[in-house]
Design a protein that fits this description.
heterodimer; A: alpha+beta; Thrombin, subunit H; 3 helices; about 30% helix; B: mainly alpha; 9 helices
């Protein structure tokens, strides 16, 4: 079993001991971690590393991509016509709503002009694809196939067809890393669409659940309430659906209610997401009295 | 020498791919740390060709792929590789079950370092499931050792 065939160096005088070499590498690691985590000096290095990782990510992604291409190419006529019918139906519904939306948008603009306030409106949207690469089963992070050259930036909101999906944590050369709203390190400022009650929806590491931990037991919130982004915190544009309230639990002795909500976005099934560039509103005039409620803090990872 | 390292490098690249390959959630939770086991194998069988430098670079690659703080996997992997290199002559003559137990111990140390740095950098993952890869990695050690044995014959 013992073999030195792989090594042509002399047996004696092998250089520094394992311990010494380990200490050397360990010091490098500690240095890297310190520079990266505390000083954020390594953004350029990360940028390069993400570019180097790209070919492997594409390779890993390719079987899945090939499979979906195949199943799309060889889809049966039945399925396609069924899908077509469904899409037609949805388009009809959407058209109906859109007819009213135009009028409402005009009205909204007029009203806002009267108040001299501008809402932040999504300005530009780009479709990005999620690469089939597993990062960590305990963290809800994904890699998408758009990078900094496409204009992606850290903190950019991501939506899918049904609601808010997450935000970018790091933009690389060809790819970017995003955090889902269900990650335990993510929190998003929301408001109840029915009455404007503001709170924060926190991810709990479950793709089908968000938690609303900061509402008192007597808050006006019911099962089935739609939660939309409130626009506070300045990351997400306001008015996009985030989740629907699923369960309310009031413990008698507690001051805060235990509320869970179901994300509107299909976090576990999406292959394509929308990157959104938001037109930020001009800062409010100084003279305007500040609203009494403190702005919800945005936890950025 | 460069040619002799080819099987080692190929096995490391394959292990890297396996460690980010998309799998169903429940498989992915118990996914063994392929790259760690492969690096440990080479640390034991060929400590001078695949020594700490290999462990360090493989760890950095994992950091880059997983998008965590740079140096986290590198530190954990160099630590367990250093232990494996220190013990390599003993581990080689262990019976396979005994070897698997040693690998289990090393994988637990590896996970512990990751756990510690996760906590220290403010992204703790406290679920007990994170220790599962240590069990699966050790349980699959005979398979890894058998497969990598073929590659080792060619070095």
């Amino acid at each position: 079993m013992v073999s030195f065939r792989t090594d042509t160096r002399p047996i004696l005088g092998r250089g520094p001991s394992v311990l010494l070499r380990f200490v050397f590498y360990a010091l490098i690691c500690f240095g890297l971690m310190w520079l990266d985590e505390r000083r954020h000096y390594l953004e350029k290095v990360r940028f390069g590393l993400s570019a180097a990782a790209y070919p492997v990510q594409v390779l890993v992604n390719s079987p899945g991509a090939a499979w979906s291409w195949m199943s799309e190419s060889f889809a049966t006529r039945d399925r396609l016509s069924h899908e077509n019918e469904q899409l037609r139906e949805r388009l009809r519904d959407a058209d109906l709503r859109l007819m009213r939306l135009d009028a409402l948008e005009q009205e909204n603009v007029r009203l806002r002009n009267m108040r001299e306030a501008t809402a932040n409106i999504a300005e530009r949207v780009v479709v990005a694809e999620i690469l089939r690469v597993d990062l960590n089963p305990f963290r809800h992070r994904v890699i998408i196939n758009k990078g900094a050259p496409d204009g992606v930036f850290a903190g950019q909101p991501i939506l899918d067809a049904r609601g808010v999906f997450g935000q970018i944590t790091r933009a690389g050369a060809f790819t970017s890393e995003a955090i889902l709203i269900s990650d335990t390190e993510h929190a998003i400022p929301v408001q109840v669409n029915r009455n404007g009650l503001r709170t924060i929806a926190v991810g709990i590491g479950d793709l089908s659940k968000l938690s609303l931990p900061f509402l008192p037991t007597n808050a006006d919130i019911r099962e089935g309430d739609l939660l939309v982004t409130s626009g506070l915190g300045g990351v997400f544009p306001s008015g996009y659906p985030v989740a629907t309230v699923k369960a309310l639990k009031n413990e008698p002795g507690q001051t805060l209610a235990e509320i869970t909500a179901e994300p509107a976005a299909t976090l576990d099934r999406d292959r394509e997401v929308l990157l959104v560039w938001v037109k930020t509103p001009p800062p409010e005039p100084e003279a305007a009295p500040a609203p009494p409620a403190p702005a919800a803090p945005e936890k950025t990872p | 020498m460069a040619l002799h390292r080819m099987p080692m490098l190929i096995s490391v690249v394959i292990a890297l791919i396996l460690s980010v390959l998309p799998l169903p959630y429940w498989v992915s939770v118990g996914r063994p740390d392929f790259l760690v086991v492969v690096v440990l194998y080479w640390a034991i069988m060929s400590p001078r060709a695949g020594g700490l430098l290999l462990a360090f670079l493989a760890g950095l690659a994992l950091d880059a792929f997983k998008g965590v703080v740079l140096g986290q996997h590198a530190l954990a992997l160099t630590l367990v590789s250093a232990i494996a290199i220190k013990m390599h002559l003993r581990i080689r003559v262990f019976p396979i079950l005994h070897q698997a137990l040693t690998i289990f111990m090393l994988l637990v140390i590896y996970q512990f370092v990751l756990y510690w740095i996760d906590g220290a950098s403010g992204h703790p993952v406290t679920t007990a499931w994170r220790w599962l890869p240590a069990f699966t990695g050790a349980a699959l050690w005979p398979v890894f050792a058998g497969l990598l044995g073929f590659a080792y014959q060619r070095t």
